[in-house]
Amino acid sequence: MANHKSALKRIRSNESKRLRNRYQHKTTRNAIKKLKMAETQEEATKQLPIVISMIDKLAKKNIIHDNKAGNLKSQLTKHVAAL
Q1: Domains of the chain by range and CATH?
Q2: What is the pLDDT of residues 53-68, one digit of tens each?
Q3: Which has the closest alpha carbon to 58: 67, 69, 47?
Q4: What secondary structure does DSSP assign to 19-80, as a single string?
């Protein structure tokens, strides 16, 4: 167990940040799945900017790597264009 007050605070803050990151990552993954399951191109085109924004926010906060974010955005853009 931690011996210092600052270490106890760090444990608490790390846990809250972990939960927030997990929630944001899971929400984005669900949005990506929803985009891939879109039936029409209009539907997918409407969702694409929202999903790309979510991916950019994850990359900015270092929840996912910048290259992974770029790969995801590229893959989704190709998918929408192919519909």
Answers
A1: 5-82 (1.20.58.110)
A2: 999 999 999 999 999 9
A3: 69
A4: HHHHHHHHHHHHHHHHHHT-SSHHHHHHHHHHHHHHHHHHHHTTSS-HHHHHHHHHHHHHHH
Mean pLDDT of the chain: 94
Tokens 């399951």 — which residue? Answer: 37
Residue 3 has pLDDT above 90, yes or no: no
Half-sphere exposure of 14 (CA within 13 A, CB side): 6
What sign results for the dihedral spanned by CA atoms 34, 43, 80, 47? negative
Q: Which pair of structure tokens corresponds to residue 83? A: 């519909």
Q: 83: which DSSP letter?
A: -
